[in-house]
Design a protein that fits this description.
CATH topology of the largest domain: Sodium/glucose cotransporter
CATH superfamily of the largest domain: Sodium/glucose cotransporter
Shape: globular
Number of strands: 0
Largest sheet: none
Radius of gyration: 23 Å
Number of helices: 23
CATH architecture of the largest domain: Up-down Bundle
Oligomer: single chain
Distance between the termini: 46 Å
Order of helices and strands: HHHHHHHHHHHHHHHHHHHHHHH
Number of domains: 2
Structural class: mainly alpha
């Protein structure tokens, strides 16, 4: 009961503070609703960025991967810091100079309206079919398990899942649809503090447990007993081979932190360029500590499972089992509220971005060009409600999938690299025409689908069958399957290069008649923070040092 009361108390406090902070924001205008009135400061931006990114699929999934493979999976966290530096130095100044509300707006300016609409549609399709249902499903599993909802309410696991999905969906929708970006960002910032505190408590108590009351002894014992789990260099058969860091991994990170609407929308709402850059760099600094939350607990759980103090039947159960084992009972409710906040954050952030994309890039552009800003916001909210209900209906059916994390990573590639490609070419060239962008979008998506959903299964299944026929061990068979086809991150890099070259060639033989010149919209002050490059360089050096130290 104490856990439930503390859970409800923290959740209500976040809601009240979010309402109080946004009560004076004019949310009947596009900038007020979609960008928080362009009033977000560095701390709010950093907190919102981090909590939008960090949710149950990362906390549970990456700790599960660390349980199996060790700290090499930290690449998903530490390399994000470099991508955030790149965004602060290179991308954000260009976005704010144009006064963008959505990333596809740049594509309309650089190429044409059709390119913008196609890109917005790709984003919305990915959000509706993949991201929103995945967040709801994985979050509901976590909450249902943490509070043992089936036993608490006397219902089946299936019914409990539906109840949790709809509860999270409705609360998240209220934040995102009726509160606008500022409500989302403020609630994110509060929850980010709680998540950092709660997230760090888990490895702290875990190391105390392992070290018999000493954190330093716990660290030393882990490094002594399971040294292989402290190697940052992934082999060819690892989930993150070291070579992918220099290919598709960085492309995925730049797409996510620099062009993905649900993430970059926080920086677009900055009150000026300095606050936006400081927010991104502050977020990058904290992101370096991300492995403490999403990797180290998995390593601790692995050691505890070896010596029999933790019973883990599958890697994805490692984090939950560790929390139940080592976290003091009086902190369970607070930690559950923080996790709930992380789930809500991811859901309402994606939903708010979807509302923005629809209202600005589709409704205003194609359905009602004469609509005033109040009408655009109104129909954007209506679309958001429909999208939320659709996601809540789809989410429970994801239980039939073998791996929700694999599903998310695999399907995201259909739209992430094609979008990144046309944005990249749009920035670095002046005469590549709109037709090249359209071809780049379609070829990127189609080639990735052919590669990952047709060629990969064929090659992998053939290699596994051959290894089995030769009487190979389980390790040999697994290695044969892992190396039978290029890693999906390598595939992304190959397609990025191919499509970039294709677009540039089209531009060479069929160039635009008038070279593109970026227009300046004086929405906010775009004077850069004078220490941006120095701070960014320091962050990158720290990331490199971490890899050298753990190599």
């Amino acid at each position: 009961m104490l856990g439930i009361l503390s859970f409800l108390g923290f959740t209500i406090i976040v809601a009240v503070v979010s309402w109080y902070a946004t009560r004076k924001t004019n949310e009947e205008t596009s900038e007020g609703y979609f960008l928080g009135g362009r009033s977000l400061t560095a701390g709010v931006i950093a907190g919102s960025l981090l909590l939008t990114n960090l949710s149950t699929e990362q906390i549970v999934g990456l700790n599960g991967a660390a349980f199996s493979e060790g700290i090499l999976v930290m690449a998903w966290e530490t390399l994000a810091a470099i991508a955030m530096v790149f965004t602060a130095v290179f991308l954000l100044p260009r976005y704010l100079k144009s006064g963008l509300i959505t990333i596809p707006q740049f594509l309309a300016e650089r190429f044409d309206v059709t390119t913008k609409t196609l890109t917005s549609s790709l984003f919305l399709t990915g959000y509706a079919v993949v991201l929103l249902p995945t967040i709801l499903y994985s979050g509901s599993l976590a909450i249902s398990g943490m509070f043992d909802v089936p036993a608490l309410l006397g219902v089946s696991k299936s019914t409990a899942l539906w109840l949790c999905v709809w509860s999270i969906g409705i609360i998240g929708s209220i934040y995102a649809v009726f509160g606008g970006l500022k409500a989302v960002a403020v609630s994110d910032s509060i929850n980010a503090v709680g998540l950092l505190i709660g997230g760090i408590l888990i490895p702290f108590f875990g190391l105390l447990f392992v070290g018999n009351g000493s954190v330093m002894d716990g660290i030393s014992l882990l490094q002594e007993k399971i040294p292989a789990h402290f190697n940052s260099i992934g082999s060819a058969s690892a989930s993150v081979p070291f070579a992918t860091i220099f290919t598709g991994m960085m492309l995925v990170q730049v797409f996510y932190w620099g062009t993905n609407q649900q993430i970059i929308q926080r920086a677009l709402g900055a009150k000026n360029l300095q606050e936006g850059q400081k927010g991104l760099l502050l977020g990058a600094s904290i992101k370096i500590l991300g492995p403490l939350i999403v990797v180290l607990p998995g390593v601790v759980a692995y050691y505890m499972s070896l010596n029999g103090t933790l019973n883990v039947s599958s890697p994805d159960e490692a984090y939950g089992e560790l929390v139940r084992k080592i976290l003091p009972k009086e902190l369970v409710g607070f930690f559950a509220a923080v996790i709930f906040g992380a789930i809500l954050s991811s859901f309402n952030s994606v939903l708010n971005s979807s509302v923005t994309l629809f209202g600005i890039d589709i409704y205003k552009q194609h359905i009602n060009e004469q609509a005033d800003e109040k009408t655009v916001v109104k129909y954007g909210k209506t679309f958001g409600i429909i999208l939320a209900i659709t996601a809540m209906i789809i989410a429970p059916f994801l239980s039939s999938l073998e791996s929700i994390f694999s599903y998310l990573q695999q399907v995201n590639g259909v739209y992430s690299i094609p979008i990144l490609t046309i944005i990249f070419v749009g920035f670095v060239t002046k005469k590549v025409p709109a037709i090249a962008a359209k071809i780049g979008l379609f070829s990127g998506s189609i080639l990735y689908i052919i590669s990952e959903f047709f060629l990969r299964p064929s090659f992998v299944n053939s290699a596994i069958a051959e290894a089995k026929g030769l009487g190979g061990s389980e390790e040999v068979i697994a290695l044969a399957g892992a190396t039978a086809y290029p890693h999906f991150l390598h595939v992304m890099a190959i397609l990025f290069v191919l499509n970039s070259v294709l677009m540039i060639l089209i531009g060479k033989f069929n160039p635009k008649k008038v070279a593109y010149v970026q227009k300046e919209s004086k929405q906010v002050d775009i004077t850069p923070w004078k220490y941006t490059k120095q701070a960014g360089a320091l962050i990158c050096i720290i990331v490199i040092f971490i890899y050298i130290y753990f190599s």
